[in-house]
Specification:
The chain is of the alpha/beta class and 912 residues long. It has three domains: 332 residues, Rossmann fold (3-Layer(aba) Sandwich), CATH 3.40.50.300; 120 residues, no CATH class; 244 residues, no CATH class. Helix content is 50%, strand content 9%. It contains 32 helices and 17 strands. The strands form four sheets. It has a nine-stranded mixed beta sheet, sandwiched between helices. Strands 16-15-14-17 form a four-stranded mixed beta sheet, sandwiched between helices. A two-stranded antiparallel ribbon has the order 1-4. The longest helix is centred in the middle third of the chain and has 40 residues. The chain starts with a strand and ends in a 7-residue tail after the last helix. The relative contact order is 0.09. Pfam families: Dynamin_M, Dynamin_N. Keywords: GTP-binding, Nucleotide-binding. InterPro entries: Dynamin (IPR022812), Dynamin_GTPase (IPR001401), Dynamin_N (IPR045063), Dynamin_stalk (IPR000375), G_DYNAMIN_dom (IPR030381), GED_dom (IPR020850), P-loop_NTPase (IPR027417).
Length: 912
């Protein structure tokens, strides 16, 4: 086992109990210290095995022996060994390049935020050396100033590969983009409104600072740039064509100069970002540089919270690796970034620290230097995993960061002012750590400490860390891509398909509207619901109930007699008959059931009781007529119509006059029924048009207006039909149903006469005597079938009035049955059955869309091209509303991007 070569992570970086990758070397297990062998064997090799299996296996790689505390080498030798050439030459780097390439492809597609592609977020307090770290890693200069120079997030996407140039070298290029995800007030833009736009392409590193400053200015002045109609943001690009290669920064454009000093920009900070896509970089990385955290502002203190919120927003996502810059020689607890990182990452699983400006600690400050050395060499690791040197170092002063710390030494202001190059800066950094007596001593004691010192080590470590994070998130990114793609496809399915032939599409929609209206009107379940038809039936029943209460009734003594029985009203009689056994209501019995009800002893008392609110409520609940007449009033009416008739004859005009007292009330009920049906039809029409044409505002408005006109036309025809029907009913007294009429009249006459005479039926004991009398009369030639027949033969002083009242009740009972169905049937046949008429609807729509043109078409004018006009009108009508069109465009674009993202995520290179 000790002779076996195994992959070992020189800089152990942990997250919980899972080991993560930093810089990979191939070392002999026997070369490890004894106390580290067991821990090394226990460490999880699963991920490294996956990486190793994808590389070219070399059984006897010439491994570089790693100096342990027992095998000390000179600091210069250690640093030289680390500079072993491009990482792309190793198998591990090939795997890294694949994973980082996948991440870059996802970023190119613009789905990195949606799929939560891991990224490195560099943040720190103002003047913590953050920009210098970004410059060193990216190899490009960034804007500098005395105050805050980073005023928006800057995303740097670095790629090592590029198109071969002259001499076989990679062509260095930087594409600068501006990305708008927020409006000028900081509110997120709606889906489809956000965009990423190319600002310029730079091929000379000396020109990049001016271009980044101009791109920031574009984002910080949204109103001015938005008003630039001709060229937009391009007007602010520096004059690159006139700039000298490797010389001075290019001259600013006139638009850029017009913005004036940065202090006068419209915004001081923005959440919109500048993107640098660098090809030909020294590492495959994506880092996001955030504005430095400020603690004061001379003009606007509210900007402190603006920057604070921006930084916290970028630190919060779990797929962001927090890279914080902490200047040496300062208490880390005083740095706001450390507090923000703890809030976003309480366990420190995705946070890493970069110690800047190590030269701020003098060689005589051995205590402070010792703390810093222990902080870097003794980065916290889980039990069983060695720290940076393979031996347990002293506990770190800040154990929060489980990914540990790096130390970098970047040029100072004087060196930058002198024009130090990147190569010179890195060489100076190496000399600093190699020649510094304290760092040199520390590296002799722990050679692996060198893997945490310098920009090259930082770049390699961050690259490995990002690779590990991407590999870890790969399954989740696949799952998220599939889920989001399904969601977008579902959204597109819910939308109407894109219109290709506007005229045909409009006609199809009209036919669907017509069919749906007809199906709803005829209770066809294919219409989707029977709610509309059921609502119509409710209105028909309400019409019937109102018609019931408009029928006649007569008050005779203390009883109220109506034309309709309980069964006619659709009500059940009580078992014992009660006060409403059939069509007769005993007011005496009714008020007896009312607590503290009125006392009724005469017809006068009964009339007074009918004014009682409690009695009126009972009458309404039991559908009794609202109006009534007394026999006295009937007699007065008869007297007014007496003329040339012989005694014993009733004037027919008096009968007509009595009937007319209760005629005409159907009109109000029928009009109310039609109005209720019309309201339901308009609601149905609005709903159907919204369902079919909701995405096309102009078509929805035009068809809705046309359908409204169509409905109103049908309602007018229905009202005319009802007028004819009601005029026939109210203008004539007629029935061929003579049998039922005579039967009803005789029954009503008997009931009215009994009430008038207050007759009580003979009881069981008196019945033999009654039968004897009837038998005796029969022997004398006077035949009565029963007691009721003998009773009806008696004359009263109001026989004529009783006969007229009985005839009136019988007629309205016959007429009610025909009118109860006639009105709803007229509504159904004239309005509802024609509601879904496709020809009528189509004609109404074209009249609405073409206006005067429709009249010309109907008139057959030769000069009018109806087909062309209809086609143009259809195209105009089926224009989607901007919001829907934007949503569709966004969904289509996202579906395409996610489809491509899945293809990328399912390539063999992504199957780790």
């Amino acid at each position: 086992m000790e002779s076996t070569f195994l992959p070992l992570i020189l800089c152990i970086i942990t997250s919980g109990s899972r080991m993560r990758l930093a810089t990979v070397r191939v070392v002999s297990h026997a070369q490890l210290p004894r106390d580290a062998r067991t821990r090394h064997a226990q460490a999880s090799l699963g991920q490294m095995h996956r990486l190793a299996t994808m590389t070219t296996r070399r059984p006897h790689v010439a491994a570089r022996s790693v100096a342990t505390p027992m095998q000390a080498e000179s600091p210069a030798r250690v640093l030289q060994q680390r500079q072993h050439g491009p990482m792309a030459a190793t198998g591990y780097q090939r795997v890294s390049a694949r994973l980082l390439g996948i991440a870059n492809q996802l970023r190119d597609l613009g789905v990195d935020s949606d799929l939560k592609v891991p990224a490195l977020v560099i943040a720190g307090d103002q003047s913590s050396g953050k920009s210098s770290v970004v410059e060193a890693i990216a190899g490009v200069p960034l804007p500098r100033s005395d105050g805050t120079c980073t005023r928006c997030p800057t995303e740097v996407r670095m790629r090592t590969h590029g198109a071969p140039g002259e001499g076989g070298s990679a062509v260095w290029q930087c594409r600068i983009k501006v990305v708008r995800n927020f409006d000028s007030t900081g509110k997120p833009l709606a889906p489809g409104e956000a965009h990423e736009k190319l600002f310029c392409t730079v091929t000379d590193k000396a020109h990049i600072t001016a271009c980044i400053s101009a791109a920031q200015a574009v984002l910080l002045n949204p109103t001015v740039v938005g008003d630039a109609v001709a060229d937009g943001a391009e007007r602010f690009v520096p004059l690159l064509s006139a700039a000298e290669p490797g010389g001075r920064a290019p001259e600013a454009s006139s638009a850029m100069r017009g913005l004036g000093d940065a202090a006068g920009y419209e915004l001081q900070f923005t959440a919109n970002k500048v993107v640098l896509e660098i090809v030909g970089a020294e590492a495959d990385l994506t880092i996001i540089d955030l504005p430095g955290i400020i603690h004061s502002h001379p003009k606007d203190p509210s900007l402190i919270d603006v920057v604070k919120s921006l930084v916290k927003c970028y630190l919060a996502p779990a797929h962001h690796i927090i890279v914080m810059t902490l200047p040496a020689g300062m208490d880390a607890e005083t740095q706001a970034i450390l507090q923000f990182a703890r809030e976003a990452d309480p366990e420190g699983r995705r946070s890493i620290g970069i110690i800047t400006k190590p030269d701020k600690i003098g060689t005589d400050e051995r205590t402070e230097w010792g703390k810093l050395c222990n902080l870097v060499a003794g980065a916290r690791a889980p039990t069983g995993v060695p720290a940076a040197g393979g031996s347990r170092a002293a506990a770190a002063p800040n154990p929060h960061l489980q990914l540990g710390y790096y130390v970098v030494k970047n040029p100072g202001q004087e060196q930058l002012a002198a024009g130090i190059s990147f190569e010179q800066a890195r060489a100076a950094e190496e000399r600093y750590f190699a020649d510094h007596p304290l760092w040199a001593s520390a590296m002799k004691a722990n050679s692996l400490l060198s893997q945490r010192l310098g920009t090259n080590a930082l770049r390699d470590g961050l690259s490995a860390l990002l690779v590990d994070k991407i590999g870890e998130h790969m399954p989740e990114m696949r799952r998220s891509a599939r889920a989001q793609l399904e969601k977008r496809q579902a959204e597109l399915k819910e939308m109407s398909p894109a219109v290709r032939n506007a005229h045909e599409e409009l006609m199809r929609n009209l036919w669907r509207i017509s069919d749906t209206l007809a199906q709803n009107a005829l209770a066809d379940i294919r219409g989707g619901s029977l709610d509309f038809y059921q609502e119509l039936m409710r209105h028909y029943r309400e019409y019937g109930e109102r018609s019931i209460r408009s029928t006649p009734a007569f008050l005779v003594d203390t009883s109220l007699i109506s034309a309709l029985s309980s069964s006619d009203k659709g009500m059940r009689s009580s078992a014992g008959g009660g006060p409403i056994a059939t069509c007769e209501l005993s007011l005496k019995e009714l008020v007896a059931r009312i607590e503290d009800g009125p006392v009724i002893e005469s017809e006068k008392d009964a009339k007074a009781a009918l004014e009682d609110k409690r009695v009126q409520i009972w009458l309404q609940q039991h559908k009794f007529p609202e109006g009534y007449m007394t026999l006295v009033e009937v007699g007065q009416l008869r007297q007014r119509h007496l003329g040339r008739e012989l005694p014993g004859f009733l004037p027919y005009s008096a009968m007509e006059a009595l009937l007319s007292k209760f005629k005409g009330k159907h009109r109000d009920q029928a009009t109310a029924c039609l109005a209720a049906v019309e309201a339901e039809v308009h609601k149905l029409a609005h709903r159907v048009v919204e369902e079919q044409l909701g995405h096309y505002p102009r078509a929805k408005g035009a068809v809705g207006s046309a359908l409204c006109s169509h409905v109103e036309s049908l309602v007018q025809e229905t009202a005319a039909e009802l007028d004819k029907l009601l005029a026939r009913e109210d203008g004539d007294v007629f029935t061929l149903n003579s049998y039922e009429y005579e039967v009803m009249r005789n029954e009503f006459l008997a009931r009215l006469k009994r009430c008038y005479k207050q007759l009580k039926q003979p009881d069981h004991e008196a019945m033999p005597e009654v039968l004897d009398v009837l038998s005796e009369l029969s022997r004398h030639g006077v035949h009565f079938a029963d007691f009721d027949a003998a009773f009806m033969a008696q004359h009263t002083a109001v026989d004529d009035e009783l006969y007229m009242a009985a005839s009136c009740l019988a007629y309205f009972k016959v007429a009610f049955k025909r009118m109860q169905d006639a009105v709803p049937m007229a509504v159904r046949s004239t309005l509802l059955r024609r509601l879904g008429d496709p020809a009528a609807l189509e004609a109404a729509v074209w009249r609405e869309l073409l206006g005067a043109g429709a009249v010309a078409a109907e008139a057959g004018e030769d000069s009018y091209d109806g087909s062309a006009a209809k086609a143009a009108a259809a195209v105009a009508a089926l224009q989607e509303d901007p919001q829907t069109a934007s949503r569709r465009q966004h969904c289509v674009a996202m579906a395409q991007k996610l489809t491509e993202a899945l293809q990328v995520l399912n390539t063999p290179a992504a199957q780790l």
